[in-house]
Amino acid sequence: MAGLVPWLDHASVLVFALTGALVASRAQLDLVGFIFFATLTGIGGGTVRDLVLGRDPVFWVQRPELVLLTAGAAVLVFFTAHLFESRYRLIVWLDAFALAVAVPAGVGLALETGASPVVVVAMGVVTGTFGGLIRDVVGNELPLVLKQKELYVTATFGGAVVAVALIGVGMPRPVALIFCGLVVIALRAGSLLLGWSLPTYKARPPRR
Question: Mind telling me which residue stretches traverse the membrane in this protein (predicted)?
């Protein structure tokens, strides 16, 4: 766990930062705007997680190289975004892979604090969803978390629950976190490719 969770944090920050920079490219911002979006997206979910868990300092203050990582991702996208025909589709798939590493990172860090299973699941969901939510709201994009007939929060929730359940029956934590990421990407990819979804609420006339 000691080595896996920081690696997952680095990976999620990098991939989320790439999605933030791609949103900046769709908005045709300058390089500083790219860095702002990449950093905001890369560290957003983890920052909320650490603040809720009372971790001091938050992860990127303790490891400032993560901010350099997001800036590097922004510079890379600034000079290469024009090579991709559909940047939105790339954002969606990179976001899916970011979820698959961010949720296990949130679960793993919450476990290290000794949090209850309910809090562990919640921190997995928060770590996975808040960076992208902040990115889309600030970028004036329809948040992926609100897209109808897609599994998004459900994918993060499912992965976190699987991790907690597997740990509860005695599976080693690193292995459980790997399964967590696999469940997240499987559910998200199934939603994008095969149309998997949950029933949505449909308004009905009030009963008299």
Answer: 6-24, 31-54, 66-84, 91-111, 117-138, 150-169, 175-198
Q: Both tokens of residue 193?
A: 């490719």
pLDDT band, residue 6 (cuts 50/70/90):
confident
Output the pTM of the full model: 0.92
Query: Could you tell me the two tokens for 27?
Result: 């908005």
pLDDT band at 202 (very low <50, low <70, confident <90, very high): confident
Question: Tens of pLDDT along 146-166?
Answer: 888 889 999 999 999 999 999
Residue 158 is which amino acid? Answer: G
Whole-angstrom Cα distance, residue 15 to residue 30? 20
User: C-alpha distances in angstroms, 72 versus 62, 113, 163?
Assistant: 19, 31, 32
Q: Report how far residue 164's alpha carbon sits from residue 37's, in angstroms, rounded to the nearest whole number.
A: 32
Query: Using H for helix, E for strand and C for coil, what is the string for the chain?
Result: CCCHHHHHHHHHHHHHHHHHHHHHHHCCCCHHHHHHHHHHHHHHHHHHHHHHHCCCCCHHHHCCHHHHHHHHHHHHHHHHHHHCCCHHHHHHHHHHHHHHHHHHHHHHHHHHCCCCHHHHHHHHHHHHHHHHHHHHHHCCCCCHHHCCCCCCHHHHHHHHHHHHHHHHCCCCHHHHHHHHHHHHHHHHHHHHHHCCCCCCCCCCCCCC
